[in-house]
Amino acid sequence: MKLEDGRIVSIAMESGRVFAGKMFIDATYEGDLMAAAGVSYTVGREANAQYGETLNGVQTAMAKHHQFVKGVDPYVVPGDPSSGLLPFIDPAGPGEEGAGDKRVQAYCFRMCLTNHPDNRIPFAKPEGYDERWYELLLRNYEAGETGLPWINSSMPNRKTDTNNRLGFSTDFVGQNYDYPDASYAEREAIVKRHRLYQQGLMWTLAYHPRMPEKIRGEISKWGMSKDEFTEGDGWQEQLYIREARRMVSDFVMTQNHCQHREPVEPSVGMGAYTMDSHHVQRHVDAEGHVRNEGDVQVGGFPPYPIHYLSIVPKRGECANLLVPVCLSATHIAFGSIRMEPVFMVLGQSAATAASLAIDGSLPVQEVDYAALKSRLEADGQILNYTAPPKPAANFTPLDSLEGIVVDDSAAKLSGDWLASILSTGIHQGYRHDNDARDGKSSAVFTASLPAPGRYEVQVAWSPNGNRATNVPVRVEHADGVAEVKLNERDRPGIEGLFGSVGTFSFGTGGVVTITNAGTDGHVVIDAVRWVKTE
User: Fold this and answer.
1) DSSP-derived pairing of the beta strands 281-284 and 290-293
2) pLDDT tens profile 2-30
3) Ranges of CATH 2.60.120.260 domains, the chain
4) What is the pTM of this model?
5) What is the architecture of the domain spanning 398-532?
6) What residues have CB less than 8 Å from 531, skipping those under 6 apart?
């Protein structure tokens, strides 16, 4: 790289090609151009105290999701600390709560899987497979885990976008700390190791004899897609770099800006996603068991503006560089900003600012914001947003429904059911299990019936594409027990509210139990209704 008077003159590629320009934009996930230009940056997590945050740094108290079953032993010889820790457990963890560190949230390969027999490449044991890498996975299931360790989002043509889920999954936790500042050769080795880990993981899940038969049976139905990423037999080259370097500029976006506790002006775009971090380390807790740490998922705030100075270097560091991806943000604020649509928004704003800087012969730090705002808004950019008033609740009143209706508010609940933020459903709305898929959440609806007879049992839910297609429903009736599965992605066929699960004989009482055991999406509970048929 050639620098003169605080400006990039040209950059040279490893191939020998040289590119000169008046302005440069670093749109990489790693921030390599930014770092080469001598711009200030950081890697890892800031302490909460540094910027007055609460969700940064070490977060063991927040690490509730994607967690190990309690009681998983971390030692090579169970119960024997002298035998050493199993692979990928950080002996220095977890650290002081809220303290900063240089750990980086985990990476993985997003997979495009298929269960189409003519297009499926079965998972294969890779060369270099080491069973010790997966001992914690096996122990987690032996300790009681029952769920599938992936988010298998449906895509067209019987394909998926598959991502990390549960305590041991596609995230290679703790194995990417060196990646942000590594050389290209070192990064290639880290990527290769991640691929080896994930290929071995998928083979273990599908075929290892210690895996539960139910898990093996489901995972082995899937494989890589023959017609995707064909050079890698279905495996792509791009590792999912969730976070690497982050610039430190004259304005740093923080949790307080995301949550509207502090104002942001001038704006060059909007963020809107939950503040989200994947786990960053695996450690031994005070009880001597293995735990994950670093996962934070906090939302519930409206869209927020992103400051212009967060995408340009500090004054005096580099006058002709903009950084819309590895922008100036804390770890936890970046966890919200790091969505590709936001990067595209900031990329448009950065390009527009670069053009104005060229036209005015100005450093990027001194671009006239009024002119920038005017052009961005003329091009359709949304720089600030005020949410419209919430519509009136459209709950269906209980007293407007025929039959004997038991609302979710009257059910006996076990596990974690979250009240929906949407103003829809019966009575006071519905609850959902937050896509837990762990079999730990159940709802028991008990009805007192006016007279013995035959009743149609109907279950209410609010449909959506992220719902489970196989919600277990258990009906206790006079002749025994019936177990059925509901597809909550479909619209309920009765009044748009209820779906029938069958007609049964009852005495003067009936019980329906809904759980999230083995489900493949969000489970919704709203109400159960008994309608007398004879």
Assistant:
1) antiparallel
2) 999 999 999 999 999 999 999 999 999 99
3) 398-532
4) 0.80
5) Sandwich (2.60)
6) 402, 403, 404, 455, 456, 458
